[in-house]
Amino acid sequence: MKLSIVVPAYNEEDRIGKMLAAYLPHFAERYGNDFEIVVAVNGSTDRTEDVVRALQPRHPQLRVIVEPRPIGKGGAVMAGGAVAQGDLIGFVDADGATPPAAFDDLVQNIGSAGLIIASRRLPGSVISPRQPWPRRVASRIFNFLVRRLFKLRITDTQCGAKLMTAEAWRAIVPNIGLTKWAFDVDMLFKTRRAHYEIREIPTTWRDVTGSKLRVGPVSFQMFLAICRLRLLYSPCRWVVALYDRLLGRVIALEPRTR
User: Fold this and answer.
1) How far is CA 132 from CA 99, 111, 136, 209, in A?
2) N or C: which end of the chain has fewer CB within 10 A?
């Protein structure tokens, strides 16, 4: 099988149906049955699972796994990837912010890289509508901290569309520590340390209504998460046990958004 796309889904009944209705015919037209979409429903208390299962009779490429616990985006991505069968394995948000053609650009451009990511900040990206200024400021501060702390020359670590070769995925993703908001950063950092090439390309991305993200609290949690991750990769990793005891409950709060 050529391609597996993992979609982490937490209480997404209002958005995932539309997203799948766009993705399934797009990839079926290009790859026939040589692809799969694995929806990893986790901790949902709404009809997310029912919405996905209702589409399965018409789309044999659609699979669903269900985890009753809210294991977060990272946990859901790892769970979906564990059953993925593609030569290329990636993930994308359930809200449809990344249109199918933009995700397909990752497939077409991965080349010799082990990991390719969509970037909303590279020249040529099309973002509609422009995000509110508090989110733009928080994103730039987070990216600056990631660059300084992890020496990652990545313009957009948090865009929800990423694709890896199956070899790189199985070498990296099962070994990621679930650091909540730092999941993507940990994946990128481990990929670089394993000497896989990382490629970034401009993307098309649209802000989709329905997000419950609150910039202030989430920004604080993201800051704590990357601090913890940096400690894990330092001689002071022993501090993490104390860090978790004092601040672990704060960074463990599961987001109600993508």
Assistant:
1) 21, 34, 6, 13
2) N
